[in-house]
Design the sequence.
């Protein structure tokens, strides 16, 4: 992730710290919560929601696109999922959720540990 993209994520999430309680809340802020599609007979297919912060979604999307071209684990993931017959849009959606998990883990406040003196 580049410096500009990381700065964009920090600025947007810093504006809304009370909204980021979980990975799901961060996904909703970005605008990529998994929304079920179909009648329930489709085997759990999902689509991306249409709300969220546009600049944050663009930053996450830039990160995913760059990783799909230059980072080996996502390249392997895309090749494997494409071989399974998954559409590219679904692959990108899954990679966005992976990036959200990483970002949430980094943004999570450090757990307070009891000091040795107390």
Sequence:
């Amino acid at each position: 992730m580049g410096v500009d993209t990381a700065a964009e994520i920090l600025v947007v999430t810093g504006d809304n710290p009370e909204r980021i309680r979980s990975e799901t809340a961060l996904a909703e802020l970005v605008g990529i919560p998994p929304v079920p599609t179909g009648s329930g007979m489709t085997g759990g297919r999902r689509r991306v929601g249409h709300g969220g912060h546009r600049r944050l979604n663009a930053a996450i999307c830039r990160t995913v696109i760059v990783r799909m071209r230059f980072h080996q684990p996502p390249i392997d993931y895309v090749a494997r999922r494409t071989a399974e017959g998954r559409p590219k849009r679904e692959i990108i959606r899954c990679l966005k959720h992976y990036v959200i998990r990483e970002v949430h883990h980094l943004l999570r406040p450090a757990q307070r540990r009891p000091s040795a003196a107390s």
Observations:
- The chain has a mean pLDDT of 76.
- The CA atoms of residues 3 and 9 lie 10 Å apart.
